[in-house]
Amino acid sequence: MKIVLAARSPFNFQSTVHAHGWYQLAPWVWDEASHSLSRVEQLEDGRIVSLCFHGEGNKLVIETGERLSARQRDEVVHTASWMFALDADFEPFYARADAKPRLAHCRAGACGRLLRSPTLWEDVVKVMMTTNIQWSGTKRLVNALVQRFGEPSPDDPSCRTFPTPEAIARSREATLRKIGLGYRAPHLLKLARGVVAGEYDLDALKDPGLLTHVLRGRLLALPGIGPYAAHTLLFLLGRYDYIGVDTEAVRLVSKHFYDGRPVGEREINVVFDGWGEYKALAYWFWDYAGMGQ
DNA sequence: TTCCAGGGGTAGA
DNA sequence: TCTACCCATGGA
């Protein structure tokens, strides 16, 4: 079954997928030969389906192995629209970026969208798995969670869904430590059990009506989520007022704006302060590669 | 072997 | 609000 969705222009499937590393994390599978992205997903009625995405010009194309009911199709459309931020409008950012040489590539490249997970739960867990660890370790931990706690696809049992909060909540700290999470284990367990208990309502945080600083406070209240993780999640939620400062941000900004001198969060914010509500976009899509050295 | 990674929590000032 | 210290694990 094939579903074709129109996106707000400009849209570029590949630039959306490759804007950050999520496409390398399970259960996503990127196929370089066909330039398509796949994952196994469990629908609300319990059915497990395989979804394959690719781009056709300004459109997102979804292929499903089997036929879906009308309700299932609506759910897939809704989820895909969220994951690829099909309605996102970056025109105000482009209008400013056009005049800045290092950001003038953004409009033509349709920069701005970052691939999101179907649920904020999955994005929170994945961001948590990027803290104080190398990227190869993040991939290993996320894969371990999917293999250990995900539901297998009936078509191919080696492919699994991303674990639900319930599946993690039923686990034990020792089990999570054993699969390599280390000191992150109690944070993830507390998050999962809090979500199941209704203590943390992650879906409510998608509400565009929430003020950004209020949303930031709710994210910081989640276990294992500090400033870096909260700001990264704000970016995924379409709020660009804060930069997620990690070692990579420090390295880039130090090299390109401070002549290699040591910098902290304050110095990084100074550089992009003029971008206001587009600060994180300006930082993320700044063409550091074009600055030489 | 040592250092540190796409940091966060906590205690103490 | 800021700083010092600890935290598990694997890669470099």
Please give a structural write-up:
This protein has 14 helices and 5 strands. With 293 residues, the chain is an alpha+beta fold. It has 3 domains: 2-89, 2-Layer Sandwich (TATA-Binding Protein), CATH 3.30.310; 120-236, Endonuclease III, domain 1, CATH 1.10.340; 247-291, no CATH class. Helix 5 (120-128) packs antiparallel against helix 11 (227-236), helix 6 (135-149) crosses helix 8 (173-181) and helix 12 packs across helix 13 (265-272). The relative contact order is 0.11. The mean pLDDT is 96. It binds a DNA duplex (13 and 12 nucleotides) through helix 6, helix 8, helix 11 and helix 12.
Key words describing this protein structure:
Endonuclease III, domain 1; five-stranded antiparallel sheet; DNA-binding; alpha+beta; globular; 293 residues; TATA-Binding Protein
Low-confidence stretches: none
| Structural domain tally | 3
Structural class: alpha+beta
Please count the helical segments: 14
Average pLDDT score:
96
CATH topology of the largest domain: Endonuclease III, domain 1
What would you call the shape? globular
Number of strands: 5
What fraction, in percent, of the residue positions are helical? 40-55%
Radius of gyration based on Cα positions? 19 Å
Strand order of the largest sheet: 1-5-4-3-2
Biggest sheet details: 5 strands, antiparallel
Percent strand equals 5-15%
Cα(first) to Cα(last) distance is 49 Å
Secondary-structure element series? EHEEEEHHHHHHHHHHHHH
- What would CATH call the class of the largest domain? Mainly Alpha
- Tell me which CATH architecture of the largest domain applies here: Orthogonal Bundle
CATH superfamily of the largest domain: Hypothetical protein, domain 2
